[in-house]
């Protein structure tokens, strides 16, 4: 459902992505991890069509993100690390706007269910500027879910969330993956990421250090890492040469 092929992107003559290639199939949750400056955010911006790569392709459900952006992005839900909300719109108005953008006509029942699920019913009429960071994250996820996307791309979605908010996001991602969605999630919170990820992509210097299921990556890096946690595996791979 997500196909990334030979992506290259440079900033100020420094190559940030160097031939990035991978795919995510239905039901898979890919954890995108790497040190600061490894190219994670750049990769996500290219995948979502926000940033144009110098070369390479990104396809969402078979649609090229740059040649057919409307068709590709209609399948996509994107949750950035710091969601940009309209401060003078209410929570409900944000969801209504998202539904109209994606052409969802009968959205009210689904919206009510999501507000209930994410415990924001009492904040329906609150302005975005009145919401805490965690509540803004929850509202952004409601907006992302309203058009029933098949692909989720999330960049550090757990920052600023309390334990309940983190659990809600994790449960949502697992549920959507079981329904056949493809998920990419970038996070430095590796212990939490390991709870939901089926696969992992470790980047370093814009290049793929390891890619596959967590078990495959452990076996690829070193046979003795089989019992290591994802966090321990990350340090082993990125600090000891991989």
Care to give the gist of this entry?
With 242 residues, the chain is α/β, with parallel strands linked by helices. It has helices spanning 40-47, 69-73, 91-101, 108-117, 133-145, 163-178, 190-193, 214-221, 230-239, and strands at residues 2-11, 14-24, 29-33, 55-60, 63-64, 76-79, 151-155, 182-186, 199-204, 207-213.
The N- and C-terminal alpha carbons lie at a distance of 29 Å
Reading the helices and strands in chain order gives EEEHEEHEHHHEHEHEEHH
Looking at the overall shape, the CATH architecture of the largest domain is: 3-Layer(aba) Sandwich
Query: So, the CATH homologous superfamily of the largest domain?
Result: P-loop containing nucleotide triphosphate hydrolases
Work out the oligomeric state of the chains in this entry.
single chain
- Total strands: 10
Number of helices: 9
- Residue share in helices? 25-40%
Structural class: alpha/beta
| Radius of gyration, in angstroms, nearest whole number | 18 Å
User: What is the third-level CATH name, the topology of the largest domain?
Assistant: Rossmann fold
Average pLDDT metric: 89
- What ranges have pLDDT less than 50 throughout 5 or more consecutive residues? none
Count of distinct structural domains: 2
Rough outline:
globular
CATH class of the largest domain: Alpha Beta
The biggest sheet, with number of strands, parallel, antiparallel or mixed sense and barrel status, is: 6 strands, mixed
Q: β content, as a range?
A: 25-35%
């Amino acid at each position: 459902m997500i196909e990334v092929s030979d992506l290259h992107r440079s900033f100020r003559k420094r190559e940030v992505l160097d031939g990035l290639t991978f795919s995510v199939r239905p039901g898979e949750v890919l954890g995108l991890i790497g040190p600061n400056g490894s190219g994670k955010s750049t990769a996500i911006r290219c995948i979502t069509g926000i940033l144009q790569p110098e070369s390479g392709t990104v396809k969402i459900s078979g649609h090229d993100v740059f040649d057919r952006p409307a068709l590709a992005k209609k399948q996509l839900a994107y949750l950035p690390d710091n969601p940009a909300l309209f401060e003078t719109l209410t929570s409900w108005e944000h969801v209504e706007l998202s539904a109209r953008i994606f052409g969802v006509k009968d959205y009210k029942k689904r919206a009510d269910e999501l507000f209930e699920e994410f415990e924001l019913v009492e904040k329906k009429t609150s302005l975005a500027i009145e919401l805490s960071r965690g509540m803004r994250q929850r509202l952004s996820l409601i907006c992302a879910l309203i058009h029933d996307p098949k692909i989720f791309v999330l960049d550090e979605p757990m920052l600023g969330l309390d334990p309940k908010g983190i659990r809600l996001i994790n449960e949502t991602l697992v549920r959507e993956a079981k329904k056949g969605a493809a998920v990419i999630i970038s996070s430095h919170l590796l212990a939490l990421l390991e709870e939901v990820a089926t696969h992992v992509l470790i980047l370093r210097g814009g290049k793929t250090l390891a890619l596959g299921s967590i078990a495959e990556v452990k076996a690829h890096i070193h046979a003795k890492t089989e019992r290591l946690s994802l966090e321990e595996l990350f340090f082993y791979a990125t600090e000891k040469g991989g």
